[in-house]
């Protein structure tokens, strides 16, 4: 606690006037002897009592007759043995906010790693990416419906205009989700995510040539390591597959359009990040289901399911359930994180997420990686980080 005490000081007389004697000039009127406060010539420190400390005490002396205002500055501490002022409440709230964001990020990365591991296990034993994608959307939609019915989560207030603007977002989300799953069914998880780290390059190119947006020079320069790193990694991939490569590229393009449609169509909509993704999953499920039936069909699913159960056993059912649940959870947490942080922080977090997925998948699945391939991945991820810095 800091306070300032102001006081007015009465006129003073010089010490030579203390003696009464005759003078050749008219005598001054007799003034009451009062000590005067002068402006400090040096800083002093006077301890009044513990825990109160008085700083900048003005020097007391006899001076000429003049009026002046002097200040006494005080600092108080909570306890006598403390040496620092009381910490403001804002500092504690900022620390709590950073801790909350850190928990969001750690949960987001962990859930994403678990999803990719189980998703790859399912696709290795059950190579039907269209049904796998459908099940993950269906599981998330069912979880949110139960949350709304039981009042665990607040039911969003939507109207026809909301679903109308959500439709193009859901189309792009569906294409991106299926394309990424197709890619992971053909190539290693690490390779898919290395190619998906090139999404910023698609974002800049689409925004520049289709929307007419311009960007600063550093943004364009950051695309060089992104494109070069992805190309180097693809050229040196031991298990390269064109279908897997094109699936990751299509996923990048679809998610770019999803982001563009989201920015244009969802302005002014008061729906939380969790409920927004829930609505997006439900509409994507309605869009995807008929296409999944047409492309693969129940007969193929039944035959593939029997084969997987005979080879893996009952654990395969747990793998399917886990990849479906964790897919929804990691996306839900990512949207909840976006509500709490800036786009720049989210981009950095997304870059770090890809690193965690690439490293963990290489370790768990023992994916062979050449040094030149690892170098390409590092360059592409570094370019993604530079892009997030330059974009902001």
Instruction: Specify the number of helices.
Output: 12
Strand percent estimate: 5-15%
**Which residues sit in consecutive blocks of at least 5 with pLDDT less than 50?**
1-23, 30-37, 39-50, 52-83
Radius of gyration: 35 Å
Overall geometric form: globular
Strands of the widest sheet, in order across it, are: 1-6-4-3
> How much helix, percentage-wise, in residues?
55-70%
The topology string of helices and strands comes to: EEEEEEHHHHHHHHHHHH
Sheet of most strands: 4 strands, antiparallel
Total domain count:
2
Structural class: alpha+beta
N→C terminal distance: 40 Å
* DSSP strand tally: 6
Question: What is the overall pLDDT average?
Answer: 78
Organism: Quercus lobata (Valley oak)
Subcellular location: Plastid, Chloroplast membrane
Pfam family, one: TPT
GO molecular function, one term: phosphoglycerate transmembrane transporter activity
């Amino acid at each position: 606690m800091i306070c300032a005490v102001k006081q007015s000081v009465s006129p003073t007389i010089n010490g030579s006037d203390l003696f009464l004697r005759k003078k050749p000039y008219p005598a001054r009127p007799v003034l009451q002897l009062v000590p005067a406060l002068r402006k400090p010539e040096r800083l002093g420190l006077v301890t009044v009592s513990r825990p109160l400390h008085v700083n900048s005490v003005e020097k007391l002396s006899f001076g000429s007759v003049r009026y002046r205002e002097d200040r006494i500055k005080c600092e108080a501490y909570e306890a006598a043995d403390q040496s620092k002022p009381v910490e403001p409440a804002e500092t504690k709230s900022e620390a709590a906010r950073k801790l909350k964001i850190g928990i969001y990020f750690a949960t987001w990365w962990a859930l994403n790693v678990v999803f990719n591991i189980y998703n790859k296990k399912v696709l290795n034993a059950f190579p039907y990416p269209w049904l796998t994608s459908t099940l993950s959307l269906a599981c998330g939609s069912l979880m949110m419906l139960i949350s709304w019915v039981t009042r665990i989560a607040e039911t969003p207030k939507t109207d026809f205009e909301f679903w109308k603007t959500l439709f193009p977002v859901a189309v792009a989300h569906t294409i991106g989700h299926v394309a990424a799953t197709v890619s992971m069914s053909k190539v290693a998880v690490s390779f898919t995510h290395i190619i998906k780290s090139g999404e910023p390059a698609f974002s800049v190119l689409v925004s520049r040539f289709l929307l007419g947006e311009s960007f600063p020079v550093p943004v364009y320069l950051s695309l060089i390591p992104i494109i070069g790193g992805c190309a180097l990694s693809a050229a040196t991939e031991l298990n390269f597959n064109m279908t897997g490569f094109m699936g990751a590229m299509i996923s990048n393009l679809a998610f770019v359009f999803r982001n563009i449609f989201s920015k244009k169509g969802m302005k002014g909509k008061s729906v939380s990040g969790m409920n927004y993704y829930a609505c997006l999953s439900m509409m994507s499920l309605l869009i995807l289901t008929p296409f999944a039936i047409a492309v693969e069909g129940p007969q193929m699913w039944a035959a593939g399911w029997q084969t997987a159960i005979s080879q893996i056993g009952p654990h395969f059912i747990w793998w399917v359930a886990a990849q479906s649940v964790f897919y929804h959870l990691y996306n839900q947490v990512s949207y909840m994180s976006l509500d709490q942080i800036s786009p720049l922080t989210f981009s950095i977090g997304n870059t770090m997420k890809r690193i965690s997925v690439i490293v963990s998948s290489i370790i768990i699945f023992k994916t062979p990686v050449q040094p030149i391939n690892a170098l390409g991945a590092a360059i592409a991820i570094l370019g993604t980080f530079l892009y997030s810095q330059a974009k902001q």
